[in-house]
Structure formats: structure tokens, C-alpha cells
């Protein structure tokens, strides 16, 4: 990776990692508050999952937004923008902390008090989306109101092609990895295991992400028909949405057919999925990866075809 390529990636990564490590203070405080609970071993595992795999969705979003705005305003020089980036990180963290306090107030004083146990998972899902939307709104507002110094860097066609491949591989590989992490049953089993098993699972997951990233790199080589000086955010989103929708739809249909043909006839479809949830999700993940590789090339060629 040459200096131009590094300058394109280093500020979004710096911003994302800085936000992540500062935000680690919150779960660390909660962790020590629970130092005397009787199920400490389980909380240890949940803590490890929360600060690693459980945070990926949020910080993927942070990285996407940072990548978009940093390249939109051509912000590549850290030395000229260090103070402004630190200001952005500080304000973002403080606002997120306010939202965090608000979420916990809603959780403890409204949801747990007034909602039936069966509705709590739905409420937690709502809070998760609330958190994601709040991240999106906060970052968009902050990038709009905080001025930055722009840089003049002209990327040659080779560098631009490499940038496209790396960014698309990063997000597409994450989507494929996320389907594996949907297996709630397997995650719960890990929570009941030792902290060593949980750490090993986290390590293998990140290793798997690296393998998927390299795999998408290979698949996407020579896939872009035209190059421009910036990765088009709309094209990236459309490629992701199209790949997710079609690969998930076809994978679900194939796995459902397999369940209907080979699972016990006395069970209805819902019970089959519940009874074989682990096998269903592992099969879905493998088939989904295959179709993700196919459809990602298809959508990229559509959006980047030569005019």
C-alpha cells in the first residue's frame, strides 16, 4: 500500500479506533461494578463478546460514515486536522454517553417495569436500532458543522482500483461474517463455556474475517469498469443492499427447500427451523457466502460499467 493509499484510509481508521477505545471506558466501569455477582464467569464472557464482536456493527457504521465524509471533503492530512478530529471525537463520545444514559433509563424504568417478559426482546431490538440511528444522526451533524482542511491528492488509476477493491472487500466480508454470528444458540453455548473458549471464538472470528476479506479481494479483482477519484458512497450502499437482499433471499429459499425435503415430516416448518436452528444458520451462512461472491461482482459491474 503506497502513501496515497495510506492517506486515504488512515484518518477514518484513526477516528473509528479512537472512538472505540474511548467508549471502552463505559463497559469497563460496568464490568467492575459487577465484580461481586455470583455468575461472574458468564459476565466475563458477555463482556468479552460485547467489546469485540458485539461492537462490530456500531463501529462498522462509524467507519462507513467517517470514510464517506473524509473522502467527500478530501480530508487526508492528520497534522492539519488533528485538533478538529479530537474535537469531533470528544463531542461524539459525550453525546453518545448522554444517549447511553437515556437508553438505560428507558430499559430499567420503563421496559423492565411495564412490559411483559415476552416483549422485552422486541424492546431491546428497538433500543439497538435507536442506538444505530442516533450514531448516524450525531455523526452527520458533527461532520456538517465542524470545518476541516481539505487536501489536494490526485490518485492514479492503479491506486483508485486498489481502494475500490479494499473498501468493498471490507464491507462485503463483514456482511458474510455477520450471518455466521446470527447463530444465537451457538453464542449462548459459548457464554456458558470458559473464558478461554470465548476468547478463542473471538480470535477465530477475526481470523475468519481476514480470510473472507482476502477471498473478496480475489473475487473483485478486475471487477470495476471505470474509476473515479472518490469511492461513490451511493454505489457502495446500493451494492451492499443488492448483494444482501438477493443472496439472503436465494439462500433462504434453498435452505427452506432442504428443510422441507430432509427433515421429519411430522414437524411443521417453524418447528423444523427451531429444532435445527444451528444447522439451518450454518447452512445458510455457507450458501449465502457463495451467492454474495457472485452478486457482489454483478452489482459492481452494473454500477461501475463503462459508459
UniProtKB/TrEMBL annotation:
<feature type="transmembrane region" description="Helical">
    <location>
        <begin position="236"/>
        <end position="259"/>
    </location>
</feature>
<feature type="transmembrane region" description="Helical">
    <location>
        <begin position="279"/>
        <end position="300"/>
    </location>
</feature>
<keyword id="KW-1133">Transmembrane helix</keyword>
<keyword id="KW-0472">Membrane</keyword>
<feature type="transmembrane region" description="Helical">
    <location>
        <begin position="7"/>
        <end position="26"/>
    </location>
</feature>
<feature type="transmembrane region" description="Helical">
    <location>
        <begin position="46"/>
        <end position="70"/>
    </location>
</feature>
<feature type="transmembrane region" description="Helical">
    <location>
        <begin position="82"/>
        <end position="106"/>
    </location>
</feature>
<feature type="transmembrane region" description="Helical">
    <location>
        <begin position="193"/>
        <end position="216"/>
    </location>
</feature>
<feature type="transmembrane region" description="Helical">
    <location>
        <begin position="167"/>
        <end position="187"/>
    </location>
</feature>
<keyword id="KW-0812">Transmembrane</keyword>
<protein>
    <submittedName>
        <fullName>Uncharacterized protein</fullName>
    </submittedName>
</protein>
<feature type="transmembrane region" description="Helical">
    <location>
        <begin position="126"/>
        <end position="146"/>
    </location>
</feature>
Amino acid at each position: 500500500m503506497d502513501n496515497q493509499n495510506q492517506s486515504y484510509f488512515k484518518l477514518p481508521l484513526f477516528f473509528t479506533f479512537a472512538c472505540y477505545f474511548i467508549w471502552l471506558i463505559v463497559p469497563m466501569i460496568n464490568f467492575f461494578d459487577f465484580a461481586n455477582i455470583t455468575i461472574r464467569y458468564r459476565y466475563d464472557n458477555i463482556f468479552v463478546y460485547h467489546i469485540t464482536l458485539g461492537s462490530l456493527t456500531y463501529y462498522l457504521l462509524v467507519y462507513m460514515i467517517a470514510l464517506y465524509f473524509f473522502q467527500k471533503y478530501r480530508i487526508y492530512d492528520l497534522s492539519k486536522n488533528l485538533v478538529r478530529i479530537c474535537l469531533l471525537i470528544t463531542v461524539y463520545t459525550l453525546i453518545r454517553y448522554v444517549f447511553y444514559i437515556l437508553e438505560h433509563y428507558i430499559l430499567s424504568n420503563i421496559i423492565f417495569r411495564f412490559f411483559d417478559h415476552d416483549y422485552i426482546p422486541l424492546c431491546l431490538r428497538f433500543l439497538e436500532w435507536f442506538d444505530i440511528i442516533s450514531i448516524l444522526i450525531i455523526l452527520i451533524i458533527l461532520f456538517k458543522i465542524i470545518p476541516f482542511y481539505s487536501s489536494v491528492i490526485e490518485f492514479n488509476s492503479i491506486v483508485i482500483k486498489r481502494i475500490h477493491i479494499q473498501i468493498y472487500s471490507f464491507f462485503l466480508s463483514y456482511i458474510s461474517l455477520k450471518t455466521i454470528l446470527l447463530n444465537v444458540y451457538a453464542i449462548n453455548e459459548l457464554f456458558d463455556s470458559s473464558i478461554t473458549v470465548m476468547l478463542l471464538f473471538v480470535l477465530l472470528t477475526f481470523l475468519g474475517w481476514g480470510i473472507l476479506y482476502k477471498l473478496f479481494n480475489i473475487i473483485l479483482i478486475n471487477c470495476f469498469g471505470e474509476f473515479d477519484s472518490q469511492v461513490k458512497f451511493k454505489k457502495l450502499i446500493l451494492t451492499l443492499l443488492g448483494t444482501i437482499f438477493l443472496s439472503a433471499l436465494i439462500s433462504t429459499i434453498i435452505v427452506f427447500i432442504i428443510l422441507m425435503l430432509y427433515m421429519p415430516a411430522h414437524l411443521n416448518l417453524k418447528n423444523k427451523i427451531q429444532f435445527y436452528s444451528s444447522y439451518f444458520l450454518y447452512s445458510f451462512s455457507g450458501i449465502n457466502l457463495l451467492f454474495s461472491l457472485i452478486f457482489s461482482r454483478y452489482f459492481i459491474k452494473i454500477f461501475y460499467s463503462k459508459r
